[in-house]
Prior knowledge:
Number of domains: 1
CATH class: Alpha Beta
Low-confidence stretches: none
Largest sheet: 8 strands, parallel, barrel
Order of helices and strands: EHEHHEHEHEHEHHEHEHH
Strand order of the largest sheet: 1-2-3-4-5-6-7-8
Bound molecules: SN-glycerol-3-phosphate
Radius of gyration: 20 Å
CATH topology: TIM Barrel
Amino acid sequence: MKIFLDTADVAEIREYAASGLVDGVTTNPSLAAKTGRDYVESLKEICSIVPGAVSGEVLATDYDGMMKEAAVLTKIAKNIAVKVPLTWDGLKACAALAKDGTMVNVTLCFSPVQAWMAAKAGASFISPFIGRVDDAGEDGMGLIRDIRAIYDNYGFKTEILAASIRSISHVRECLLAGADVGTMPSDIFKKLISHPLTDKGLAAFVADAKKANVVIKG
Ligand code: G3P
């Protein structure tokens, strides 16, 4: 499963991308608003930091407006993915952009049938929002499993980009369900390798080596 960071904060992306383990980035208007920076300028910088897809979301809700904004976004870099909402206008824009070879991420997916429609429209990525489905009292991970089954049944190549990830359990279940990408906030990314027994074990190794003067000589 690829790891994407779900943030528009360039400094944060730079910091975590230095690990070499960040494949791409997803942004949305709410995340862009938090930065207080010019959205296109931020996207330009982000595209130069990570090797994989960087989703920049259209702000327009009508087809013509989306296509105009997509023309600006696609000029930013080769790894930009235009993010459109799961509406009729969004899917129409998705189909037109995909036909021209543009990567499209269809966002705000809350049902398996919506995901099927996005795949039919040629989306490169579908973004089901796990956490928000859970918030609504439904089964977010069930949504990922259903989409996986549908895409596999019909051979759709659209990548399942699990979004609205709120916990390490979400990440583990996404891995087991066969999501292609997990996009997560930096605080979840940081926790991916945390385990108290790792910390405890390392402290013991360091202490034992120091006590017995174990060294590695060159
Ligand atoms: O990628 C979608 C994400 O930004 C939404 O997350 O936690 O606001 O539901 P959340």
